[in-house]
Amino acid sequence: MTPRPSTVSRFPKRPDWTLVGLLGAVVFLTGACSWVGWNWDTPMSTVIPKSDFGRATHEIFMLISWWTLGIFIAVEGALLYCCWRFRERPGAPIPKQVHGNTPLEISWTIAFAVILLIIAIPTIQAIFKTQEAPAATALRVEVFGKQWWWEFRYPQQKITTANELHLPTGQMVAFFLNAPDVIHSFWIPQLGGKRDVVPHRVNHITLTPEVPGEYPGQCAEYCGMSHANMRFRVIVHTPADFEKWVKAQQTPPVEPTDPLAQQGKTIFTQSTCVGCHTISGVSAGHIGPDLTHFGSRTTFAGSLMTSTPDNVTKWIENPEHMKPGALMPNLGMTGEQSKALAAYLLSLK
Amino acid sequence: MADHAATHAVHDPNIGNTGIDHRKMGMWAFLGSDCMFFGSLIGTYLAYKGKSLSGPTPHDVFNIPLTSYSAALLLASSLTMVLALGALQHDRVKAATGWLLATALMGLHFVLNQVYEFTTFALHDGLTLSSSLFGSTFFVLTGFHGAHVTGGVIWLLLLVSLAMRGKLDARDYTKVEIAGLYWHFVDIVWIAIFTVIYLIP
Amino acid sequence: MATHAAFMPGAKVETPTLWGAVASWLTTVDHKRIGILYGSSAFIFFLIGGIEALIMRLQLARPDNTVVGAQTFNELFTMHGTTMVFLAIMPMSAAFFNYMIPLQIGARDVAFPRLNALSYWIFLSGALFLHASFVFGAVPDGGWFGYANLTSAQFSPRHTIDFWMLGLQILGISSMLAGFNFLVTIINMRAPGMTLMRMPVFIWMSFVTQFLLVLAFPCITVGLILLMFDRFFGTLFYVPAAGGDPLLWQHLFWLFGHPEVYILILPAMGIVSEILPTFARKPLFGAPVVIYSGIMIGFFGFGVWSHHMFSVGMGPVADAAFSISTMLIAVPTGVKIFNWLGTLWGGSIRFQTPLYFALGFIAMFTMGGLSGVMHASPPVDLQQTDTYFVVAHFHYVLFGGSIFGLFGGAYYWWPKITGKLLDERLGKVHFWLMMLGFNLTFFPQHYLGLIGMPRRIYTYAPDLGWNFWNLMSTIGAFTIALSFLVFISNVIRTTRSGKVASPDPWDGRTLEWSIPSPPPVYNFARVPQVRDRDDLWLQKYGDGHGGAPRPRPAPVTAAEIAAIHMPPTSFWPLLLAVAMAVMLSGLLISAYQIIIGGLLTLYCMYKFAMELHRPAEGHGH
C-alpha cells in the first residue's frame, strides 16, 4: 500500500489556484453583500416596521442577525484559515493523529448554547407579549379569506368591504381570522408577521399601526390556482381621516346620475349578480365581495387590478381570463353591458 | 465473543454479531415501525373523540360484552401461539400444527366478530365511515387492526398448510417465532385499542 | 445458481448477451448493483427536478411573466419539491447506503438481499407512478406537503392529488423496507472486532437515518391513508364542515416531515465525516461526539415538528415549547461543524475534488443552519415563513448541504465503484461553477423573502422591488445547470477513457479501500478483523504510538474464494413490485384491477417467501 497516492496535485511553480479560488470566493461574497441592489424600503418590506408588532419582531430579528453574522464570520473564517494554513506542502509528514480535545469541545458546545439562550429569552418574551388578548378598546376587524380574495367586516362600525383594509394609527386593531374554504394566511409585511386563516377555527392577531401610509398585503399559504393573485391593500389613516372613511362607508350609496351607470344598475338588478353580491339597498348576495362602495376602492379582484373602467369592464366580460381559476362565472355579458356595469360599480363611492 | 459469533455465522448465515437471527431482528424493527403507525391512528381517534357534530356516540352503539369476548379470544390465541412454538421446538410437528390452526381460527373468529360488529353499526345504527368523525376514526382504526389480524391469519394458515405437507419442522423455528412475534404485537395493539375506544368513557 | 463460480480468479467469463445482461440487472440481489440502480435513477430524477426548477425560474425572471400559467407553475413547484426530496436526495443516499454500508462494516451483502432489491423496484414503480401523472394530464398541484383541506375532493376534484398521495405511499413502503434491512445489517453483520463505536461515522449517520425512516414514515402513511379515505370513501378526517381539522394533516405530515429533513442531511454529514479525515490525513476530531450528536439529532428530531407551524395559531405555550426544542437541536447540529473544522486544523490537506465538495458542504450548511436558527424564533419566523427566506434556508441546507455532500461522496467513491478516477480538472470546474451558480441563485432569495416575496406564487407585480434579484436568481439557476453538464461530461469521458483507479487512490482510512476497485461480488475474500474505526490506516501506518503497522496478511487462496456462498439472483422482487403497482394504481382505475393486483401481490409474496424455504440440501437460508 503506497503512502503517497499517485493522484495528488502538485503546484510547484504555478500559482496556488486553491488560494486564488478561496480568496476569489471571499471577495465575491463580500462584494455581493455590499453591492448596489439591496434596497430595504420596498412596499412589502419586513424590516422597516410600521407597527408595534412589527417593531417587536424586528428587534429580535436584529438581535439574531448580529449573532448569526458573528458565528458566520467565525466559522467561515476558520474554514478559510484552515484551508490556507494547513494545506499540504510537498514532502510533508503525516500530521499528528489528534482524536479530540474534550475541554475544547465542551467549551464550544457551551458557548454555542449560551448564544442560543441569549436569543431564546427575548424570543419567549415576545411570543407571549405579541399574543396577549386584545384590549377592550381595540378596533375589531373580522377577516374572511376566500379563494382568492379578502372580505373585511367591521362589526362595531357595521361595515363590510373587500380587498381594501382601512385602519387608524394609534389604536390597537384585533383581527379575527375566518376561513370559509381552505387554509390561507393573512400577511401585511410592513405591519408585522402573518397568521394563518384556518377552517374550523378563528385565529386572531393584534397590532397597532403607527405610521400612516399604504401597505400591500398578500395571502401567504398556498391555496390553489390563483394564490399568487390573492392580494389586498391596507390604508393606514390618521384617526381623523379614518373616521371620515368610516362615515363614508356607512353612508348608503347615492343613485347614479350618469346614464351609463344607470343602465348598469338596471342590468345589475336584473342579472344573477344579485345572487352573489351585496349592494346595500339593492341586493343581498354573500358569495362574492360586497360591492356597496366598490367605487371607493382603488383595486379589485383580490387587489390584482386597479379599478379603471377598462379593467373592470374586461373583468366582467371574462373573469377567468383576467384571473386564472376565478370563481366568478362568465355571465355572458356583452361588451356594452359590461361597460355599463363597470360605470355603475365605479359610481358607488 | 465476536470471534465466536463469526465462526457461528459460517454455519448459520442468519445469525449475526448479536447472536440474534436477522429475521427476528427485522421483525422487531417492523413492529417498532408499526407502533408508530397505530400510535398515529390512535392519536387521531383521541384528537377527534367527542368532536363529532352528529350521529351515534360510542356509548350508543358499543356491545361491550361481545368485544370483550373478542379481546379474550385474541388473548387466548396468543397463548395457543406460544404453545405452538413450544411444540415445534421439540419437533412435535402435529401438536404444533394443531396449536397453529387453533390460533388462526381464533383470529378468524375475531375478524368475523368484527365484520358482524361493523355491519350492525352501519345498518342498525347509521354509523358509517362518512356519517361522523366517530364513524371515520372508529372504522379506520379498528379496520386497519382487523386487516393486520387478517394478514396474520393468512400467514398462520400458510404455516399450517406447510406443516401438513411435511414442509415445516423444528428447523423452521425462527420463521414460526417471528409469526408469533407479529401475532403477539397485534394482540397487544388490540389491548390498547380496546382500552382507548371501548373502555375509557 | 452457483454464481460464485464465475468469480474465481482465472475463471473464464462468457460475454453476456444483451438480454442476459438486462436480466442480470433485473434479477440482481447484489447490494452493489442495487446501489448503482438507485444512484442512476436518482440522478435522472434529479435532472428532471432540475428542469422543473429551470422552468419556474424562467417564469419568475420577470414580473407578470407568461412563460407558464398558474396551473402549470403550481404543478412545477409541487413536482420539483416532491421529486427532489423523494426521488433524488433519498435514493441517492440509498445508493450510498447500499453500496458502502456492507463494504465499510466488512460484510459481504446486506441482511436481506432480495428485500433490498424489492425496495429498489418498489421505489422505481413509485417514481414512475408519480410521473405517469404527466401522461394522464393530472400532475400533482397541491405543493410537496399537500396541505389539507386544499387537497380534499371538494377543492381538488381532479386526480392530481391522487397521483401524489398514492405515489408517496408506494415510495414510503420502499423506504421502510430498506430501513428494516439496513438496521439489521448494521447491528448484526459487522466484521469481528467492529464494536458499535468502531463503526465509521458514515455508518453511524446512516444507522440513525434508518431509525428515522422506520419511525417517521408511518406518520405520513397514516396522514395519507386518512386523505385517501376522505377522497375515495367519504370519511371526514380533514373536512371542516363535519368538525374535521385541517391541522391534523399538518401535525401528521410534520411528525414525518421533520425527521425527514434529518433523513436528508445525516447521510451527507456522514459522507463529509469520511472525506475530511481522508484528505486532511488525520482522524475525525471528536468522532464520539459527532456520533452522539447524530444520535441526539435523531432522537430530538421527533420533538420539533411544529416549528413548521408557528403561523397556524397554536397558542403561545406551544409556540414557546417548540421554539425551545428547535434551538436545543441546533446545538448538536452546530457542534458537528466545529468538529469538522477541528479535523482540518493541524492536518495536511490535499485539495482534490471530493474535499472541495466537503468544504462546500460545511460553508453552505453553516449558512443554512444559521437561517434555520432565525426560523426557530416564532416572532421572527412569522415574517419569514412561507416567503423566499425559508426557500433560501432549505435550499442552503438541502442543496448546499445534502447535494454538495452527495456529490462529494460520488467523487470520493467513484473509483471504488467503477474502478476509474473522475477527472480532477473537470471536477473542480464542476465545483466552482456549482458554488457560483448555487449562491447566485439562492443567496438573493434571503433578501427577496425579507422584502416580502411569498413562496409558491407563479407571478408577481413589477412595483415591489423584486425584479432584479429574481432575474439574478434565474441566471444562477442556469449556471447550476451548466455545472451539471460539466459533471455529466466528466462521467462520460471517464467511462470511455478514464484513469484506472487503484484500490486505495485517496490513502483512505476505512475498510472499503482495502479491497479491489471495483470490488468482487463477494467484497471481502477474507472477513476482516477490526481493531479501530480507522482500521485500514492503522494497518498502513501503525498507531502513531510507536506500534508498527500490522504485518501484511497472507494472500487469499482460491479455496477460500470457492468457499464463499453469495445469494442467487431472483426475479420475485421485481414481480412483487410490479404486482403491488398494479394493485395500488387500480385505486385510480377500477376495483377489478385492485382485486386482481391484490391477488397477484399475495401470490408474489407467497413465492417470494417460499423461494428460500427448503432450498437444495446444505443451505440453511
Task: Tell me what you see in this structure.
The complex is a heterotrimer of chains A (349), B (201) and C (621). Chain A is 39% helix and 17% strand. Chain A has 349 residues and is an alpha+beta fold. Chain A has 3 domains: 17-87 and 102-129, Helix Hairpins, CATH 1.10.287; 139-250, Cupredoxins -  blue copper proteins (Immunoglobulin-like, Sandwich); 259-347, Cupredoxins -  blue copper proteins (Immunoglobulin-like), CATH 2.60.40.420. In chain A, the strands form 5 sheets. Chain A has a 5-stranded mixed sheet with strand order 3-2-1-5-8. In chain A, strands 4-10-9 form a 3-stranded mixed sheet. A two-stranded antiparallel sheet of chain A has the order 6-7. In chain A, strand 1 (139-146) and strand 2 (149-154) form a beta hairpin. In chain A, helix 5 (259-270) packs across helix 9 (335-347). In chain A, 39% of the residues are buried. By secondary structure, chain B is mainly alpha-helical. Chain B has 7 helices and no strands. Chain B is elongated, with a radius of gyration of 20 Å. Chain C folds into 2 domains: 31-545, Cytochrome c oxidase-like, subunit I domain (Cytochrome C Oxidase, Chain A, Up-down Bundle), CATH 1.20.210.10; 576-613, no CATH class. Chain C has a two-stranded antiparallel sheet with strand order 1-2. The longest helix of chain C has 36 residues, at 70-105. Chains in contact: A-C, B-C. At the A-C interface, helix 1, helix 2 and helix 3 of A face helix 3, helix 7, helix 8, helix 9 and helix 10 of C.
